[in-house]
What we know:
The protein is mostly beta strands. It has 5 helices and 45 strands.
Amino acid sequence: MTGVENIRRWxxxxxxATLPASAASAGICPLPPGIPAAEPGANAEVTxxxxxxxxxxxxxxxxxxLEQAGQALTAPALEYDGSAQRVxxxxxxxYRGRGIQLSAEQxxxxxxxxxxEFIGTDYALTTNGGRxxxxxxxxxxxxxxxxxxxxxTTCAGDEPAWQLAADRIELDRNRGRGxxxxxxxxxxxxxxxxxxxxxxxxxxxxHTGLLTPxxxxxxxxGAELALPYYINIAPNYDATITPRLLSRRGLQLGGEFRYxxxxxxxxxxxxxxxxxxxxxxxxxxxxxxxxxxFGRYVGLQVDATRVSDEAYFEDLGTTLSxxxxxxxxxxxxxxxxxxxxxxxxxxxxxxxxxxxxxxxxPDPFERLPAAQISLLTPNRGPQLGLxxxxxxxxxxxxxxTRRTDLRPRLLWQxxxxxxxxxxxxxxxxxxxxxxxxxxxxxDIGSGSLDVGLRLRRRMDNGWLQTLEPRLFYLYTGYExxxxxxxxxxxxxxxxxHRLFARNRFVGVDRVxxxxxxxxxxTTRFIEPESGRDVLSLGLGRVFGFRDLAVxxxxxxVIGYDDQDSDVVATAAYKPTRHWESRLALQASPGDDxxxxxxxxxxxxxxxxxxxxxxxxxxxxxxxxxxGTTETLEQVDLRLAWRIDEQWQVINRWNYSLESxxxxxxxxxxxxxxxxxxxxxxxxxxxxxxASGERGSALLLQVELTGLGRFGDEIWGLLDxxxxxxxxxxxNLRYR
Length: 735
């Protein structure tokens, strides 16, 4: 009988006997992770050089190949026992399927249960690149596998950069998790870490399990160990529980719960440390965030954080908290936004967690509660509008006061292609009613007219130049407001767009008197091929027709003399797609001095190559008690640069020219020689607290792809200040 005839006879045997799907797939090599079972009764196609049948026994030899349901198996020979549903391969086999590849020296598999054992196995998981060797692999059914005396890595090559050597590894494809027992982590062949148990992902899905632990040490806290445990509750719910042991403080328990719906999302998180050994009392943090809407028009926002004491962040700062916050907000806002109507009801208060001695400012007032509404008739000619607010202010050592503010207004506007005109007449009534003491009132009228042109011309070289002159006249009546309290009012820094504001103060408590004309002009030069603004210039100033009378205590009026404002100039130059420079200047013509200056030159070649150098100068930044002033002069360097596929650097340096010292310095470097591991190191010099005490930190992080990150989170710290969204620097993190 020739080999071809034997092959045909074997195929005929399959068609008549109709081997079960498990015999053709899971029997010879168990179904690998993620491979669906064949339909019941499906046939496997087998080819071989020779087949010998002896009742229920079949021996197939010579280039044996079995294919079924997207799987392929090759072996020198197979033995099949039909009565026992058993397949034996003593001369080795190779298997390829969706999700796994393996080779084994021997295999013994039960076809009816899909269970069996493979001896001397090399395996590879195609879902995440994990691979290794095992003395034996047991197929437990249900896409579960037990690997004994085994290794695991995601690195290529005979000498992987890192490797797990475990007494036993269990892989569960249904859960997408791997569990290793009595495991040694080797990096560069050197054993660095032992753990009796380790849980790690074998796919890209979310799974319940132990996340990478965090190890650390500090002089205040001692040795630190955090073991976060992730709980995948549902596709739109999850939670993380994190026990954190601080050898000099005690055991802290943290937790976070997140939810996501079609119109709502948020999280609730907290930390609790009973009987802090250094602090002498219980410590806690609670945080809640929510954003959502009901129907088309109603929205709800909650943003609240509370800690047990003011030193919490400085002592116990974690991923749930920052170490430089001075005030914690508790806010709940219910909003309504419909055509012509915007309304909100809110409650807001603050908890001081860092004394604001640097700015010499008192704690902000609580708003418990506040109601706001804005109404505007449709734009069919003149429009009627109303802005109204009722709010109750309170704080320690202050008299609770209710403030009512009403601002009805009449608007008119016309906007054509080459010009526009807008006018407004308004009247503001404000009443302060304290719980004890007299009621105070203020009534002020105002009117404004805003007109401008939009001119453009085609230059000889084909470029387009625009010229946009603008005049803004503002009249606001004067009323003595020195007896009125200051709850939420401040003086805004002057810049080009603030020249056209209707009030030189921010907030309700002060309304600046005005009889003034703002003149401004902008021009742009547009490249015809790309439509890009290559050069844009702006110049403006407020010209007053009477002396200013209204001022705010302590802060003063920045950028104004008795009548006129400083001259404000802006410029932006972008000669190429990558280079850009910006300039902002505020100068006082009366005494020929510059009060504000800001210059920045930057290069941007995508999110992974970004560099900029900036200079800032603020003169008379604040007018403090006693007539003293402050001046700020700083240089700021930012760099986020991918040198090649392996090296990245990131840096920020803020230097004070006035005090001749660094304000803050961040410097980091990342190295990723392959897709399986990366390391990052950074140095940070920063201000620790309001007293100006400085601190330093050296941060080190090692990432083993497919296993987790060990050490301090570095890129997350640095890229909040430097790296643009979507950068490879943030994408380096393994999810």
